[in-house]
Amino acid sequence: MSAFGFDLHKTDGKARTGVIRTPRGDIRTPAFMPVGTAGTVKAMYPEQVKETGADIILGNTYHLMLRPGAEEVAALGGLHTFANWPYPILTDSGGFQVMSLARLRKMTEEGVTFQSHIDGSRHMLSPERSIEIQCLLGSDIQMVLDECTPFPATEAEAEKSMELSLRWAARSKEAFAAQPLRKDGMALFGIVQGSTYEPLRRRSAEGLVDIGFDGYAVGGLAVGEGQEAMLRVLDYAPDMLPADKPRYLMGVGTPDDLVEAVRRGIDMFDCVMPTRNGRHGLAFTRFGKINLKNARHATDTAPLDPESTCPAARDYSRAYLHHLVKSGEMLGSMLVSWNNIHYYQSLMAGMRAAISEGRFENFVSDFKAAQGA
User: Fold this and answer.
1) Which residues lie across from 35 on neighbouring strands?
2) CA angle 93, 98, 100 (to 5 degrees)
């Protein structure tokens, strides 16, 4: 089985393109990972997801540990077999959902005790248990357990949270090394915290690099601080990380967020935005966003994008999509989600080509003009 690795092919300014190598296949960067929270990218077939150009999807530790259960998924052959996705999967650590979804959570140095949002059952998520769950699922890229610092946070609050995350990162690394279910080629990423405070981000990054990980994520953004504050952090945070490792911005974002983050040196992204908005009738296109609920689309025979290679964008009229969305038909969610994931993957492919050809800033200018920015 081949080892995990990252090959940086070309830079254009801070923008980078390369390949993350895993035993289950290569991930072309910049990469957008569709979110498959419960083992499925909502309203899409796995084959469709792959055909859009996705090399990797994201699975969610918290949701899968609660239902159907990590041990159950392992007994059924692991998440790749269970979900019929034989390509790379990244799993998050579960920490963010414990903070945002769980009932009556209590955090200590050991980890987080919480009640399931599904049935109220009690669970303990520690760095060691998070790694065990991710190995039971069989994920190719695993994340350390961290505390996603809420926004806003004082510098003292952010410092306390960041230091806890650093201690948990060290425990996660030890647990990963010792985990009997770990397979060759599996990778573990650290997560930089520190809110919007540059000195804290630097201490976090330095601490994680000292521990040593296969890749590094920038966490604790897109939590309410707004794009301007997020980009200020990204002006410096990626530069604190090793150039020869992948850099992952967690939970981001809009097409403009992706372009601006790639411009600042980010390689990987995930976000529920394309599928969540797709289920509510909001389409992302190269011309900008189209709200298919709006009455003006009721008689529009034009497709979302006549030049798209995605059937959902090319072969169905806006009037029909409007009808499906207004009627609450499942096909509406399926078609608009398909269009959105395809558009996001096309955007990433366009950025990869532009970086390779040394014309990334021209790409950014053309993108913003087409989006009306």
Assistant:
1) 58
2) 120
Q: What is the pLDDT of residues 117-161, one digit of tens each?
A: 899 999 999 999 999 999 999 999 999 999 988 899 999 999 999
Nearest to 88 by CA among 55, 61, 118, 115: 55
Mean pLDDT of 296-308: 98
> Three-class SS of residue 280?
coil
The structure's pTM equals 0.97
- 273 in Cβ contact with 32 (< 8 Å): no
Which residues make Cβ contacts (< 8 Å) with residue 25, sequence separation at least 6?
55, 87, 88
Enumerate domains of the chain plus CATH numbers: 5-270 (3.20.20.105), 272-373 (no CATH)
Please give the Cα distance from 44 to 335 (Å, whole number). 9
Which pLDDT value is given to residue 373?
Answer: 61
Q: How far apart are CA 30 and CA 262, in angstroms?
A: 7
Cis, peptide link before residue 68, omega less than 30° from 0: yes
| Chain centre to alpha carbon of residue 347 | 15
Taking the CB of residue 373, how many other CB atoms lie within 10 A of it?
12
Residue found under tokens 């790639």: 262
Average pLDDT for 237-250: 98
Nearest Cα to Cα of residue 96 among 31, 14, 26, 191: 191
Cα 189–Cα 69–Cα 117 angle in degrees, nearest 5: 90
Cross-strand bridge partners of residue 29:
18
Question: 44-53, 65-74, 146-155, 275-284: lowest mean pLDDT where?
Answer: 146-155
CA atoms within 13 A on the CB side of 100: 12
Q: Which residues are catalytic?
A: 92, 270
Q: Which residues of 165-192 are buried (b: 16+ CB within 10 A; e: fewer)?
A: bbebbbbbbebbeebeebeeebbbbbbb
Task: Output the CA angle 305-306-307, nearest 5 degrees.
Answer: 90
User: Which residues, other chains included, contact 283 with Cβ-Cβ below 8 Å and sequence gap of 6+?
Assistant: 277, 289, 290, 291, 292, 304, 313, 321, 336, 339, 340
